[in-house]
Write a structure and sequence with these properties.
heterodimer, A: about 270 residues, 2 domains, elongated, B: about 575 residues, alpha+beta, Jelly Rolls, 3 domains, 4-stranded antiparallel beta sheet, 18 helices, 24 strands, about 30% helix
C-alpha cells in the first residue's frame, strides 16, 4: 500500500505539470490569431462535468467504477486544475456582463466551498477523538434528551429529599437552557472551553449555599454537564463536517445549468466574434 | 434501597445437561457396550463420574437414511459414537467429492453487470425482505426436524454410494473426536446409510474420558497420528517435501498438546476485562523466554501470544495463528553457531490452543541439514524475529489491544482511522445498497487511539459462529473463504449469534414483499434469521464499505498477516 504522503506528492506533481502545460499552451496560442477561449471553455466545461460526476459515482456504489477515494483524489486535483483553466478562460480579468459575473460568482462559490470542505474534512476528524465518546450524529438528540431527563430527575429528587429549592432554582436560572439542546456551537468549533468553565465556576460559587446532600447532587449534575458539553462538541463538529456539502452540491448543479446557457449564448453569437 | 439478598445454589458443571432425554436406562445401555464397558470406572473419582459424563455430556441422536451428521469443512465441538446402524465417511482422497449443493451448502453467485445496475431500482423499501417461496435446498437434499434439531439429508443413497467413494463405520466406532478436541474443521463428510442411533458427546465430556482413561487416550492419539498429523505436517512448508521414511519418524516423535480451556466465544470477553497483565497471568505458558527450545511448535488451532519480559511486566510482541510456527529461528541459529540459543520470546495460549511439537534433533536433521545440502528445497518458515520487528513498527500497544480483544482472529477486520473518517456514512449507505437496503454493520465499536474496530463480521480464521449451526446455513464461501449465511437454510436458532464473541451477527425478523412480518404457521411468531456482513460476496466490487470510503479511512484488514496490518498502521 502506497503511503498517503507519497500519493500526495505524486498527485501534486501531476497537477503542477498539467497546470504548467495549460499555462504554456495559453501563452503559445495567445500569439496566434485564433481565440483560445473556445478551447479553454470547452475543456473547463468537460472538467466541471467530470467533477460533478463524482456525486453520481457515490450513488453507484455497486458498480466497478473505481474506488471512491481514487475519485476523490481526482476530484480534488481536478478542482484545483479547473481554477487554472477558469483564470485562463477568463483571460486573467474580472468578467463584466451580469451573466458572466453570476457565472463567475457561482464558480467561486463551488470552488471555495470545495476547498473549505477539504480543509474541514482534514482538520475536524482528529479533533472528534479528543473529547467524549464517539457517538453517531443521528443519536445525539436522543442522548441529549437522556441527559436532560437525568438532570431533571436529580433536580426533582432534591425537592422531595431535601425540601429546599436551592438546586431547582439554580437549574431553572442557569442550566435549563444549556440542557435544552445543542449549545455553544461556535465555541466548540473554535476549541474554546470557556462556556463549560463558566458554567462550572458558577456552580462552584453556588455550592457554599448547599447542604451535604445537595452538594452530592450537584456533583452528579457537574458530571452530566461535562457529558452534555462533550455531546455538544461532537454535535458542532459533526454538523460542520456534513453541512458544507449543502452549499457545494446545489451550487454545482446551478453552475452546470448556467454554464450550459453560457455555451448556448457563446455559440449563438460566435459569428460576431469570428 | 432494598436490603434483600439473592441467594441461589452455587452453579455447578452439569446444571444444564446436553440433553434431558438421557435416562438411567439409556446410560446403562451405553455403558454396557465397548469401548465404554472396558473403561475403569474407579478412575473417575469425585463428582465427575463416568455415568455423570454420559448422562450430562452426551445425547442420543437418531438418524434416518441419508441424514448428514457432519460435513467436511464445518466446525464442530462434539464427537459421535455409533450405538447402532451404519454411517458412511466420504473419502476425500478419492478425488471425487460430493458437490456443495448436494450437502445443502449455499453456493453464492456473483451478480451480473446488469443485475448490479438493476439494484438502483430493484432494492426493496421494506427492511429484511426474504423470498422464502424459493425451495430451501436444491432438489438433491431434503430437510427434516425444526429449530436446532433440524437435519438435512442426502437423497438416493444407493446412487451416491456408487458414484462417490466412501467407507462404512459400524456400531461401536467413534468419529469426529479429533475436530472436537482439536477445534479444527471437520476433515470429512459423514452421513447415515440407513437408520442409525448415535451418541453425541460434547467436547467437555470427551476430554474427561480422554484424560482419565488410558485406552481412550491411546485410541485418540493413535487416530490423530494416523489421520490428522501427517496432513498438518505436510501443510507446513518446512516439512512438505519430507521423504516417506522421514515422515514416519516425524509422526512417531511429534507431540500433540492442548492448552487452556476450550470454551466458546464469551471467554475472550472475560479475559479481556482483566487487562493485558491480568490476561497474561491467566494464560497457560507453552514455552518460556530464556529456555532452550526443545522443538519447533506448530500451531494447529487457536491463538498464541508472543511476549517478552519488559521491566516488571511482559510486553506483547506478536501472535501466532494456525499454520504458524515458533522456535525455529533459535534452533536454526543454534545449529549454525553450534551453540545453544535460548528462546527470545515466551509463547502463551489465549483461549484454546492445540500444538504439535517436532523435536529439535529432527528439525536439525530433516529441515536444516537437508535444506543446506540442497537435497530437499524448503520454503523458509515464518520468521518470528522479522514478525516482531513489524510489530515494533506498528506499535506494541496496538498489538496488545488487538490480542487482548481477540481481534487478531479477523481475516477481514474493519478498521476505521478516526483521524481521517469524516463520519459521512458513505460506507453504511454503500453496505445498505449492496444488501437490499439493509446495512450489515454498525459504524461503532472498540476504539484504541485513532483506530476503531467497527462492529462488522471479521470473517475469523477460527469462526466459532459456525460451531453448532444445525443446517450448515453459516459456512465459508467455497471460492473466497468468506463466512456467509444462507437465507434459504437459516432456521433462526440463534446459535451463531450467541457464539459470536464480537456480536457481529444480528437476528432480524424477516418480511414478505409487502412489508408484512413472515410468521410461522403454528405459533404465528415472527420468523427470525441471522444476518451479518458477507463481505459483499455477491457484488462485483468486493467490500462496498471499503470501496465507498472517500477518505481512505476504512480498511478491511487481514489481521492474521502482520505485513497487511503494518501497511494500514504505517501509512
Amino acid at each position: 500500500m502506497r503511503s498517503l504522503a507519497a500519493r500526495r506528492w505524486c498527485s501534486l506533481g501531476v497537477f503542477a505539470l498539467l497546470a504548467a502545460v495549460i499555462l504554456a499552451l495559453y501563452a503559445i496560442l495567445s500569439f496566434s490569431i485564433h481565440p483560445t477561449s473556445f478551447a479553454s471553455g470547452w475543456t473547463l466545461w468537460g472538467l466541471i462535468l467530470a467533477l460533478a460526476a463524482y456525486n453520481v459515482r457515490k450513488r453507484l456504489t455497486f458498480l466497478p467504477l473505481g474506488s471512491s477515494s481514487r475519485w476523490l483524489q481526482v476530484h480534488i486535483y481536478g478542482g484545483l486544475l479547473s481554477f487554472v483553466l477558469f483564470i485562463v478562460h477568463a483571460e486573467f480579468r474580472v468578467p463584466n456582463g451580469p451573466f458572466e459575473l453570476s457565472l463567475t460568482l457561482l464558480y467561486f462559490i463551488v470552488f471555495f466551498s470545495g476547498l473549505g470542505g477539504l480543509a474541514i474534512s482534514r482538520a475536524i476528524p482528529a479533533r472528534l477523538t479528543t473529547r467524549g465518546e464517539e457517538v453517531l450524529f443521528e443519536r445525539i438528540p436522543k442522548f441529549t434528551k437522556r441527559i436532560r431527563d437525568d438532570v431533571e430527575n436529580i433536580v426533582l429528587g432534591c425537592i422531595s429529599e431535601t425540601q429546599t429549592t436551592a438546586i431547582p432554582e439554580f437549574y431553572v436560572e442557569h442550566l435549563k437552557h444549556f440542557f435544552d439542546g445543542p449549545k455553544h456551537f461556535w465555541q466548540h468549533l473554535f476549541q474554546s472551553s470557556r462556556p463549560r468553565n463558566d458554567l462550572l465556576a458558577e456552580i462552584r460559587s453556588h455550592e457554599r449555599f448547599l447542604n451535604k446532600n445537595e452538594r452530592a447532587a450537584v456533583q452528579r449534575i457537574v458530571d452530566l454537564i461535562c457529558a452534555k458539553d462533550d455531546l455538544d462538541h461532537q454535535y458542532a463538529l459533526q454538523w460542520t463536517l456534513k453541512v458544507w456539502l449543502f452549499a457545494h452540491i446545489p451550487f454545482t448543479y446551478a453552475l452546470v445549468i448556467f454554464s450550459v446557457f453560457h455555451l448556448v449564448l457563446v455559440h449563438a453569437f460566435a459569428g460576431g466574434a469570428e | 434501597m432494598s436490603q434483600g439478598r439473592s441467594i441461589i445454589p452455587r452453579p455447578k458443571r452439569w446444571d444444564v445437561p446436553f440433553s434431558d432425554e438421557m435416562t438411567d436406562d439409556v446410560v446403562e445401555r451405553i455403558l454396557s457396550v465397548a469401548p465404554f464397558n472396558k473403561i475403569d470406572r474407579k478412575k473417575f473419582r469425585g463428582p465427575i463420574t463416568l455415568e455423570g459424563i454420559i448422562q450430562n455430556d452426551a445425547r442420543l441422536v437418531s438418524c434416518q437414511e441419508g441424514d448428514i451428521i457432519i460435513r467436511e469443512g464445518d466446525w464442530g465441538n462434539s464427537a459421535f459414537f455409533i450405538l447402532s446402524g451404519t454411517v458412511r465417511v466420504e473419502l476425500m482422497a478419492s478425488g471425487k467429492f460430493l458437490p456443495p449443493e448436494k450437502l445443502g451448502r449455499p453456493v453464492t453467485k456473483r451478480k451480473s453487470f446488469f443485475r448490479a445496475i438493476a439494484q438502483l431500482w430493484s432494492n426493496r423499501k421494506e427492511p429484511e425482505f426474504r423470498d422464502l417461496s424459493q425451495p430451501a435446498l436444491s432438489g438433491e437434499v431434503g430437510s427434516r426436524g425444526s429449530g436446532d434439531r433440524t437435519r438435512i439429508y442426502l437423497q438416493d443413497i444407493p446412487r451416491l454410494l456408487d458414484k462417490y467413494k466412501t467407507v462404512a463405520l459400524e456400531a461401536g466406532e467413534l468419529f469426529g473426536e479429533i475436530a472436537a478436541l482439536g477445534r479444527m474443521p471437520r476433515t470429512a463428510t459423514v452421513f447415515a446409510e440407513g437408520e442409525a442411533t448415535l451418541v453425541e458427546f460434547r467436547w467437555q465430556g470427551l476430554r474427561e474420558i480422554f484424560r482419565k482413561d488410558a485406552s481412550m487416550r491411546t485410541h485418540i492419539e493413535t487416530k490423530f497420528r494416523n489421520n490428522a498429523l501427517e496432513g498438518i505436517l505436510r501443510n507446513e512448508p518446512s516439512f512438505a517435501n519430507t521423504a516417506e521414511e522421514d515422515m514416519q519418524q516425524l509422526l512417531d516423535q511429534a507431540e500433540f498438546n492442548t492448552f487452556a480451556t476450550y470454551d466458546l466465544s464469551k471467554q475472550y470477553r472475560d479475559l479481556a476485562r482483566g487487562g493485558t497483565e491480568g490476561q497474561l497471568t491467566e494464560e497457560p505458558l507453552v514455552a518460556e523466554e530464556g529456555d532452550h527450545p526443545n522443538g519447533v511448535t506448530l500451531i494447529c488451532s487457536g491463538l498464541a501470544r508472543l511476549s517478552q519480559r519488559y521491566h516488571n511486566g511482559h510486553r506483547t510482541l506478536g501472535y501466532l495463528l494456525p499454520g504458524q510456527m515458533y522456535g525455529f529461528s533459535e534452533i536454526e541459529e543454534g545449529w549454525k553457531t553450534k551453540k545453544p540459543v535460548p528462546l527470545s520470546m515466551s509463547l502463551r495460549a489465549i483461549g484454546y490452543l492445540t500444538t504439535v511439537t517436532v523435536p529439535t534433533q529432527l528439525v536439525e536433521r530433516l529441515v536444516l541439514e537437508k535444506g543446506v545440502a540442497g537435497k530437499s528445497p524448503q520454503t523458509p518458515p515464518l520468521d518470528v524475529a522479522a514478525a516482531a520487528k513489524t510489530v515494533t513498527k506498528i506499535g506494541s500497544d496496538i498489538i496488545e489491544f488487538a490480542v487482548d480483544n481477540s481481534l487478531v482472529q479477523g481475516t477481514a477486520t474493519m478498521i476505521i482511522d478516526l483521524d481521517r473518517c469524516t463520519r459521512c456514512d458513505d460506507c453504511v449507505r454503500a453496505c445498505s445498497n449492496a444488501h437490499d437496503n439493509n446495512p450489515r454493520f454498525l459504524r461503532h465499536g472498540p476504539i484504541h487511539g485513532q483506530y476503531m474496530i467497527a462492529n462488522a463480521c471479521m470473517h475469523c480464521a477460527d469462526p466459532v459462529c459456525m460451531i453448532e449451526c444445525p443446517t450448515g446455513a453459516i459456512s465459508r464461501d467455497l471460492a473466497g473463504g468468506q463466512v456467509v449465511i444462507s437465507d434459504q437454510t437459516c432456521v433462526g436458532c440463534t446459535r451463531c449469534a450467541d457464539n459470536c464473541p464480537y456480536d457481529a451477527i444480528r437476528m432480524v425478523e424477516v418480511r414478505d414483499g409487502v412489508g408484512n412480518l413472515i410468521r410461522d404457521e403454528n405459533g404465528r411468531l415472527p420468523i427470525q434469521q441471522a444476518t451479518k456482513c458477507d463481505l459483499c460476496v455477491e457484488q462485483r466490487i468486493g467490500p462496498a464499505c471499503q470501496n465507498a470510503c472517500p477518505h481512505d479511512a476504512l480498511y478491511r484488514v487481514n489481521m492474521t498477516d502482520l505485513n497487511s496490518l503494518g501497511s494500514v498502521f504505517n501509512r
